[in-house]
């Protein structure tokens, strides 16, 4: 490559964002449990709305997505002025980092923090710090200890990915209360719908002015293909992030699907309930074979093997029947596999295969 064609050094030295290796035995249909996608199609109402939106395909979407934001506001009982939408929460994470982090404005997350947090910091040459987790769970105390005078942004995914573990919201309130004002806290609730229970929402933290909450349509709403995410932003922060979002980055079809999905809470709740049942059954079977599962509040579970070799050999056994889970080497957890919850027959096949493997019938 000619020197003139070289990318900026911080881009040239960056690894591409790692996607899952989806290879199985040749000829077998792929059963991907690698990307935390929903096993249910989107709500039928979302599909109809998307089809209808195709007819206006000649027109740009309104970059402020008024109908989508109104639907979110109504459902979550917030003012629609504090909502921003983006092409998945990945775009929002990237734009938040671009707005507030940089070479002397550090980003802080946790030991098993979602990989995109570090990736987005690299894009803006912001140093990235990771606070230790305890028992594969975010520790508020470790996070507070890791804050420096240069820390500007803190990302906490709750529940966490890839761990699946969750802190009660009261712990995040304690985190915010003890954080200096110069740190913007970003709470990524990509799996929030699976874990709401009776926990009080954290909207009041957004009102205080220095906390952002992110959600997505990719997981519980089954709209990963649509690329639609949203967040609650204090007005002063949202104004800056809004400048960085690519104008109209969510297509009209996606925005309409997302709006209709938001208005069909019953369907989404059903997805979460079904997922929780399947998760519990799978966890029980896997645990009965001597493997350890995290206490997951999501649509996936992290399976801990007793060694890296065991995780690799179980991964090979699963691929032999077409199942691909996510290897966790990139997260410093090479003895683990992360399994997305799918429908009953697939979870049976996965549990049966792990059982045969554990009994030494497969290698
Ligand atoms: C899946 C996921 C996202 C986001 O995804 P989008 O599809 O871009 O909305 C964000 N954060 C975490 C922790 C996730 O697991």
Give the SSE map.
Blueprint: H1 9-12, E1 31-33, H2 44-54, H3 66-76, E2 83-86, H4 88-100, E3 106-110, H5 115-123, E4 128-131, H6 140-146, E5 151-157, H7 169-178, E6 184-188, H8 203-207, E7 211-216, E8 229-232, H9 235-244, H10 252-263, H11 265-288, E9 292-293, E10 300-304, H12 308-320, E11 323-327, E12 336-340, H13 344-358
Parallel strand pairs: 1-11, 3-4, 3-5, 5-6, 6-7
Antiparallel strand pairs: 2-8, 7-8, 9-10, 10-12, 11-12
Helix pairs in contact: 2-10, 3-10, 4-5, 4-9, 6-7, 11-13, 12-13
The chain binds pyridoxal-5'-phosphate.
Give structural notes.
By secondary structure, this protein is of the alpha/beta class. It has 13 helices and twelve strands. A hairpin with a 6-residue loop joins strand 9 and strand 10. Helix 2 (44-54) runs antiparallel to helix 10, helix 11 runs parallel beside helix 13 (344-358) and helix 12 (308-320) crosses helix 13. The model has no long low-confidence stretch (mean pLDDT 95). Bound molecules: pyridoxal-5'-phosphate. Pyridoxal-5'-phosphate binds at residues 36, 88-90, 114, 157, 161, 188, 190, 216, 218-219, 224, 229. Pyridoxal-5'-phosphate is lined by residues 36, 88-90, 114, 157, 161, 188, 190, 216, 218-219, 224, 229.
């Amino acid at each position: 490559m000619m020197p003139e064609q070289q990318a900026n050094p911080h881009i040239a030295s960056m690894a591409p964002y790692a996607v899952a290796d989806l290879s199985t035995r040749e000829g077998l249909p792929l059963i991907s449990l690698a990307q935390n996608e929903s096993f249910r199609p989107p709500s039928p109402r979302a599909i109809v709305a998307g089809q209808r939106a195709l007819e206006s395909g000649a027109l740009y979407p309104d970059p402020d997505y008024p109908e989508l934001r109104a639907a979110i506001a109504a459902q979550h009982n917030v003012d629609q002025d504090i909502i921003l939408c983006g092409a998945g929460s990945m775009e929002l994470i990237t734009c938040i980092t671009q707005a507030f982090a940089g070479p002397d404005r550090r980003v802080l997350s946790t030991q098993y923090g979602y990989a995109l947090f570090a990736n987005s910091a690299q894009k803006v040459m912001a140093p990235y710090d990771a606070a230790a987790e305890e028992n594969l769970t975010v520790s508020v105390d470790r996070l507070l200890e890791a804050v420096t005078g240069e820390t500007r942004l803190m990302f906490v995914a709750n529940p966490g990915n890839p761990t699946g573990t969750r802190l009660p919201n009261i712990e995040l309130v304690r985190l915010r209360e003890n954080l200096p004002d110069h740190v913007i806290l970003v709470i990524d609730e990509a799996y929030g719908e699976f874990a709401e229970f009776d926990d009080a929402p954290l909207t009041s933290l957004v009102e205080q002015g220095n906390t952002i909450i992110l959600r997505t349509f990719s997981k519980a709403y089954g709209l990963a293909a649509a690329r639609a995410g949203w967040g609650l932003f204090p007005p002063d922060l949202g104004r800056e992030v809004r400048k960085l979002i690519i104008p109209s980055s969510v297509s009209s079809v996606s925005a309409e699907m997302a709006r209709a999905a938001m208005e069909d809470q019953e369907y989404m709740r059903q997805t979460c309930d079904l997922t929780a049942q399947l998760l519990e059954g799978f966890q029980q079977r896997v645990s009965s074979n001597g493997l350890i599962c995290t206490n997951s509040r999501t649509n996936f579970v992290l399976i801990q093997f007793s060694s890296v070799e065991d995780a690799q050999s179980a991964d090979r056994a699963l691929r032999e029947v077409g199942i691909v889970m996510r290897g966790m080497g990139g997260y410093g957890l090479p003895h683990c596999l992360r399994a997305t919850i799918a429908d009953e027959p697939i979870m049976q096949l996965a549990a049966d295969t792990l059982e045969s493997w554990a009994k030494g019938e497969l290698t």
